[in-house]
Write a structure and sequence with these properties.
With 329 residues, this protein is mainly alpha-helical. The protein is built from 13 helices and five strands. Helix 9 runs antiparallel to helix 12. The radius of gyration is 21 Å and the shape is globular. It binds adenosine-5'-triphosphate and L-tryptophanamide.
Amino acid sequence: MERKRVFSGVQPTGNIHLGNYLGALKQFVDLQETNDCIYCIVDMHSITVPQDPEELKKHILDVAALYLAVGLDPKKSIIFVQSEVSGHAELSWILTCNSYTGELSRMTQFKAKSKGQESAPTGLFTYPVLMAADILLYDTDIVPVGNDQKQHIELTRDIALRINHKYGDTFVVPEGRYLKEGARIMGLDDPTSKMSKSAENDMSRISLLDDPGKIKKAIMKATTDSDGVIAFDPENKPGISNLLNIYSALTEESITSIVNRFDGEGYGTFKKALVEVVTDSIAPIRERFDKIRESDELIDILKDGSRRANDIAEPVLERAKERFGLGIR
Ligand code: ATP
Ligand code: LTN
């Protein structure tokens, strides 16, 4: 099969959780074997909502170290931080001038994040345009993301097609690769909303950097239901179904087989088994993380990543500037 250019990004808004890992990062690792992959830590996206500068810096390096700890290999993939490659901001402006307030107003993520505010930060509004710039800057073929990003990918395609049509072939029109619906991991406290880095309740998620005590507490406290029967029924029993999903995704044992094995047992027994599975799966990642995070190698890998990213981005940006008649050449 032909190698494709793959690009994706994760915001450094907190530590990577099981949802990010099972829904996105595991796929990133698989894709790097047969494609040319670029994985970005999108720090400029994260400042669309206020961030503490010290915390942000820490999270950028934590997420980078976690990328490596879960198996992304800097020899196979380009790993870098968005703000280190100035082309993202530059292309973003060109795309901003070719997108419309009407289409941006329809973005559900913007509507959700600005809800209840009389006036929202402009960056929150133009967030999808910066995302389009991330993708188009690398002549990307494939963008692996969760379903929640589908609208942003469609917008990226619309902008690329619009510019290609008006100014001549400029951008590769990318395709989204959407993760399976079943891969969506829900909050432990509220299994009807997705596990998220930015949810207020820390017990709602399991971060890859959580210690065994926290993991145990969060799982044992996880919301289930009162009928006490271990069965997979996401609609009527979202809590236990989410836990079964996590168990199955980590062990690769089928849900049916897990349900059969725990037949007649109570939720407590299953939760204890899940604590063990999660702790055992996370421990080696955590160990690798600790080593990488402390080493000087991390910064070298990121510097090398931004150099390699920039080498790809520069000619694409030049191409775009030329089509628009910008600059002196
Ligand atoms: P935030 O809370 O800041 O919005 P997030 O936890 O939703 O963060 P993102 O940085 O937006 O995470 O997403 C990184 C990747 O992880 C995306 O591809 C997204 O679709 C995926 N992802 C996020 N949450 C989940 C989840 N609960 N289950 C499966 N995949 C997820
Ligand atoms: N909006 C995405 C993060 C993101 C991204 C990208 C993903 C920013 N730029 C480019 C893929 C490609 C999110 O919140 N998950």
